[in-house]
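haha ok so turns out i had the wrong file open the whole time. this is the CORRECT one, sorry everyone. sequence first:
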Amino acid sequence: MTFALDLSAFAKKTDARMEAVCVGIYCIRNMLDGKMYVGSSVNCGKRFAKHRAGLNTGQHHSSKLQRAWNKYGKEAFEFFVIEVVEDVENLLAKEQVWLDKLDTAKGGYNICCTAGSNLGKKCSQATKDRIALVRTGKKHLPESIEKMRAASTGRECSPATRAKLSVVGKSRSPEAEKRRALSQVGRKRSEETRLKMSIAQKGKKHSDETRSKLSAIVSASMTPQRRAEISASLMGRKNGPHTEESIAKMSAAKMGHVVSAETRAKISAAFALRRAA
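then structure:
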């Protein structure tokens, strides 16, 4: 496949311009078939050296470019600047123009079709495992947590996004669910975190639809085996699952609390069903 756009003029000018100009949009082109990789940098000379180092050691981030480099050899490729960018703020915008113009994500060596983004990039399982290993036990700094919280405050997901998240949550494999459960074992939240959670939940009321969904989820998860496991875990504990401190807190919270007639009826019906079972 060859591209209609002739970039030979840019390639000839590169050697003369590279020493004086660093900021710009560059291209790595396969001279045999015309396929290209487009990128941007504030120092194209150093960026070229980094590309060559990655390709020569077989560790380049573009698997497509790496395969071509291994197949045709370094002599088949040329590196050159296709546009000088005076304002660094416009660098990514200019790169996007060239990515769209040359269509190098679809017909070239770029992995992503969006400048400065990893959207569309697919990692191998080995790469995913390495990333997971690096991130295991990693904690965000308090400043980072506050920034993320501030960025998410007041943010509402569209119905389409909610549907996607719901599907993702339901598509976890049993092994993934087990790993998630094990990661939570022994985890204790700080008093500060508990207080924040308590404040966030105060006065919060679920809609009838949400209650129905929660009830259905709990009913589906409470298999006879699960009930037996819970019963066995509580066997012999003096106060069941609660500590003395928890009991005191619950008692204080219930003080003066009046149960409505509707709630009493529901509780009574639930006990009746349990006795019948």
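Strands lie at 24-30, 36-41, 77-84.
again sry for the mixup
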